[in-house]
Design a protein that fits this description.
Layout (H helix, E strand, L loop, with lengths): L11 H50 L9 E7 L2 E11 L6 E12 L2 E12 L4
Antiparallel strand pairs: 1-2, 2-3, 3-4
Length: 126
């Protein structure tokens, strides 16, 4: 069988170099894709936590001033479980005021995260 000059094929060294380059590029693309998935999950979970915190704050706002109290509950959105903690402090920052802080926490692929919102309610029935 006759072969032309310069077309003997690929050497083992050239094949190893090509495979190594492909592995490096593939691992970089994989790391970028993983970072993108984590970032997307964080954005989605943060938006859901903000909605839950606002919803809980509206629930507290709908109560009579005397009925506002600390509580804790869980909610599931999009397959993710969130813990909703409502902390009510009476006479803070001043008399006849309540400091209400709602904190929503979750643990997802991005790790353990939380979102908080806070408001002050005044007893206007005086």
């Amino acid at each position: 069988m006759r072969t032309r000059r310069g077309q003997e094929g690929v050497s083992l060294l050239e094949a190893l170099a090509a495979i190594s380059l492909f592995a490096i590029v593939s691992s970089a693309v994989g790391a970028l894709a993983l970072g993108s998935v984590r970032s997307t999950a964080l954005s989605r979970h943060s938006a859901e936590a903000a909605m839950l915190a606002q919803w809980q704050m509206e629930q507290v706002r709908g109560l009579d001033y005397a009925d506002m109290a600390s509580s804790s509950s869980t909610a599931t959105m999009g397959g993710q479980t969130f813990t909703i903690t409502t902390d009510v402090q009476t006479d803070v920052p001043d008399a006849n005021m309540k400091d209400v802080k709602v904190t929503v926490t979750w643990t997802g692929p991005e790790g353990t995260k939380s979102f908080s919102t806070e408001s002050i309610y005044v007893d206007v029935t005086l």
